[in-house]
Give the backbone structure.
Amino acid sequence: MSGFFTSVHLREELCMGCINCIKRCPTQAIRVRNGKAVITKEFCIDCGECIRICHHHAKEATYDSLEVMNNYEYTVALPAPSLYGQFNNLEDVNIVLTALKKMGFDNVYEVSGAAELVSEMSRDYVANNKDRWPLISTACPTVVRLIQVRFPNLIEHLLPICSPVDLAAILASKKAMKETGLPREKIGILFISPCPAKVTAVKSPIGIAHSEIDGVLAMKDIYPILLPYMKDSVDEVENLSISGRIGISWGGTGGEASGLLLENYLAADGIENVIRVLEDVEDNKLELLEFIELNACSGGCVGGVLTVENPYAAKVRLKRLRKYLPVACSHLENGNIQEGFWNDEVNYKPVFNIGNNMKESIENMTRVESMYKKFPKLDCGACGAPTCKSLAEDIARGVAKEEDCIHILREYIHKISNELSRLDGKK
Amino acid sequence: MNDMIKMQYVVPADDFTRAGEASSSVKRKLKLMGVKPEIVRKVAIAMYEGEINMVIHASGGIIDVTVTPDMIEMVLKDRGPGIADIDQAMRAGFSTAPDNIRALGFGAGMGLPNMRKYADELSIESELGVGTTVKMKVNIV
């Protein structure tokens, strides 16, 4: 299956072939083969759990290096609101924004500003589309990809509005073109991201045909460079912020949902919790909800693997930071922004299928079941698959064999050696 | 005929933390098998309703699921108290669930009506003091 891009990748020389990542992966996308982890790209949803768990630092996210700034005549930094939660005792987001300009960006455009516009558009959309309740947030690209490959029945519930960063990129690029007179290709719209999934969302977007983001920088790379510039900026702060409480709140779980000013919403975070909620929605177990906010990372975007700070500490900081801000600073001036809506159809990608048709699937599932009965059900991971069940499925898919199970292999060797000694005795 | 697969699930009594395990497992398997999403959903909802009924009313039971290329059949068998009046039980809103169960959010009287709504075929055989067998079928084509 081609056409699947994932940001998470393996640094083979560092991989010890342990079983930590295969056990942690929520979509069972990783196997250890020949002593190294192998990611099945079409199963991977870029949640970053394997990056978090790997003690050998063999899992990495792909993102752009700071040199990408040199490719453009004019650059605009798009800081995610989670960035503001990374700094101790920050009183004013303008210090961060001023420092971004000092470190070399020509301008900044707050993602939290665009988030306030997304909030307004979402409020309108949720109110006018009762038949599609509960609408599910599409700001977390990992959640959108998860739904696309595993919850096809919920695709119609996806909120068809760009994520704040994509809207920010649209607006920032227009603004930059207008202000500088430069053609689009000379302008670099660079996102400062808390997570690797955003890299994937730029390279192979879902819901929009093309993303206006030109590069994705890791928050953890920007952080150490930004700190000294922030100290310099304190005395000459430029007023660059375009967001208030609603926008800043998007950085943590519950921020998006609370910005909708609804009563009946649910906000969940952590990939396992997200999956449980989606299972329940699919089975009609969560009725009467208008909106569901889901974040793959615990704590929300502040919990992304490219952040520096403890997500819960960062959330507290965001709360403190927004305390005296106006409710919102960015507003839709002429109604909904048409480019802010999705313009590409989202289709189900049945990547997990074990057969090409019903007959084959029944045969393969029968094999899975009978194979599973033979396995010890220890889920030891020694075969390289996370569970005995997943090994059985791999065998049915033709990518593993029975003797990969060391317990089966041991029995097999035992049988052979018995046979040999019997033959030996006959001599 | 080899074009079928049978699966059996034991539904434990009075354990709400485990209620739904069987229907979740079937849902997962049907998705892996490439059954159309809307069909999987019908099976998952209908079967969950039946499963939860077994937990609430009948001290658990056995569910047999058969999948062929044309249909999915679920047979839910319990040795519970039986249903006195099946027509009455089929009515939306009718429930004999005790208060402690209602407090958990169950017992809205929508179990059987939902099973009828989501299954393409539904038949119930019940004898008071002996038990109930619910058969549901969802067509694939």
The CA atoms of residues 263 and 281 of chain A lie 18 Å apart.
